[in-house]
Amino acid sequence: MPLKDRVVVISGVGPGLGRGLALRCAAAGADVVLAARGEERLAAVAEEVARLGRRAVRVPADVTDEASRRRLVATALETCGRVDGLVNNAFAMPPMTDLVDVDLDAVRAAFETNVLAALRLTQLFAPALAEHAGSVVMINSAVLRHSRRTFGVYKMAKASLLALAQSLATELGPRGVRVNSVAPGYIWADNLKRYFEALARRRGVPVRQVYDETAATLDLRRLPEPDEIADAAVFLLSPLARAITGQCLDVNCGEWHH
């Protein structure tokens, strides 16, 4: 149990990767502090964590709001007494349009959640993380590895998040805090399943055909699942990665090589 009796804070807890992160951290022995805007979602994931024998602290929070962020930090420390890991998983879908046409206010809004909230949460948790040689994991994306039309703002945000993680690794390293990134490709969870269902209906083919055609472009001939992404984060949070900082671990079943 590489995270035995540690405390991990996870932002952006949803039904896909957020849930996977919470459950895999709990299975690795950690108590978890769960942050998201949806209270029902938090309650459902917390219940699953409890069934694994670990504590789950629920904090309804909007990570773009300073009062919410401060409440998250205060609740985590008051309830658990320590924080050993922070997973910045909160995400807002950027505008999917060409950069030459994009509305700049929409770009700023995307950066608030996808970059600036991660920076601010790391700032606020840094003193607690430094007390226990803690670890930060930024959830990034395989969009780092390609340039496609309409993905420009998405790539800008995730490239900024990567630069943020690398710079924080340099700044926090002397305090014993490691900062790394995980970059998933496809994640075979609800959102992607719905998208594939829509593609299948449009083409008049089975969903399995869409899956198989996509998987055929990956080395392992299958799409990663949330737990597999989460396990990479658990590794980076754990002492097994105690000499690893400033790195980005791609988890994509061989879609991209880096």
Automatic annotation (TrEMBL):
InterPro entries: NAD(P)-bd_dom_sf, SDR_fam. GO terms for molecular function: oxidoreductase activity. Keywords: Oxidoreductase. Gene3D superfamilies: NAD(P)-binding Rossmann-like Domain. Pfam families: adh_short_C2. This is SDR family oxidoreductase. The lineage of its organism: Bacteria, Bacillati, Actinomycetota, Actinomycetes, Streptosporangiales.
